[in-house]
Amino acid sequence: MASPSKAAPPKTTLPRIVLVGPTNVGKSTLFNRLTKSRKAIVADRPGVTVDRHEMRLDESPIGPVEIVDTGGVGPEALRYPLGAEIERSASRAVEGAAVVLFVVDGTRECGVDELEVARWLRRQRQIDKTPIWVIVNKSDAKDCDESSYFSLGFDHLLKISAEHGYGILDIWDALNAALGSGGPLGEPVPEIKPEARIMVLGRPNVGKSTLLNAILGDDRHVVSEVAGTTRDVIESEYQRHGHRWRLVDTAGMRKPGRLEREVEWVAREKLKEAAREADIAVIVFDASEGISDMDASIAGLAVDFGLSVVLAINKTDRLQGGTAEQLVENLERTKDLKLDFLHWVPKVAISALTGRGVGELLKTVDRVLEGRRTRAQTSKLNALFEKKMRLHHHPLGPRGKTAKFYYLSQVSVSPPEFVLFSNLPGSGVHFSYRRFITNCLREEFGFEGTPIKLHFKQA
What we know:
By secondary structure, the chain is an alpha/beta fold. The protein has helices at residues 27-35, 75-78, 83-95, 112-122, 168-179, 208-216, 263-275, 293-304, 324-338, 358-372, 378-389, 431-445; strands at 16-20, 53-57, 65-69, 99-105, 132-137, 156-159, 196-202, 234-240, 243-249, 280-286, 308-314, 347-349, 405-412, 417-422, 453-458. The chain has a six-stranded mixed beta sheet with strand order 2-3-1-4-5-6, with helices on both faces. It is elongated, with a radius of gyration of 26 Å.
């Protein structure tokens, strides 16, 4: 399955350093070492990296650069599921590279895989003037012998150990000599921070990557009917219509009991880490299957993290034919039943495959983001408190003590957070009154799709 549009790789003023090579040679370990992060999942088995990682470094030793990790290529990689799709993604990354780091395993001699990857590299578009360096990884091992890799025919060869950090400074020194500080233009590129981070969440195979490809207008994310294709947390920049967002693709979430050890568990932990930095979660559902308990759990998890939420009902193109009415009825029934606790969250029907409804989804995300950052005017907040809250029937606290409320104040945004001062501690206020106040705030100020944090402080 492919996205509805294909475009050239997005151009950037930053030099792109692209890592390529056969499977299981340590590209992701090197990516993490160069970026001083743990963005890429690392496991001692081939075929773990599927989508390419792209990460901007504003404070690298040579100035702002972009580091790109790709999945394994070559004859061995093509034997694995999605091998052809991974190779196409790597090809697009190489096309815009300033330098290609061809990573190989120094504990084995140069073989058919490495020779075929070298031939593949030489066939890529616009590669003639791109420096290609052979990076011999695992050179700290006793059986490392880099001599056979000179047969690949590339001018530069560097020995490193990505796992232990040996030779990393040599790579930066070589890049500095080739590119100069600040990249090809010799000038620092100012950092432009994204306006917001938008996560796409959902069960496996509901169309998250297809949706992101439709938004980006590019086959940025590998798409397959095979569930679990996306494993890493993959970030992409979206710049259009005056917006600059960071779009975050995530692995499909399943019940903890069904998680594989190692890769899938690590993916889930990385997803949680990314959620703490995000602003909005777009929860993708499969319209043809209705809303499952797991879908509702994912949405609840996003709210627990303080994320604003937009529900994307995907694959509506399948709601056609003789069973369409039954599918729609099932969808509405399960939606009303299992998502009742998210009555304040907007829902958009889309087809990521055809692009239908994607524009409306982006408008909804923009609207929710605006509400998330809304700060209520003090005068309106005071008027609301006097009109609806102060004179409302107050609940009884512990031991029958009547609650008294003095004033309400907004203390932060993203998400909006309020403090209500009273004669009782927060634990003494009944949950129904919390819900009443939250509903009053939504009715007056909107806050569409955004959880409201409400604290009670004893005064």
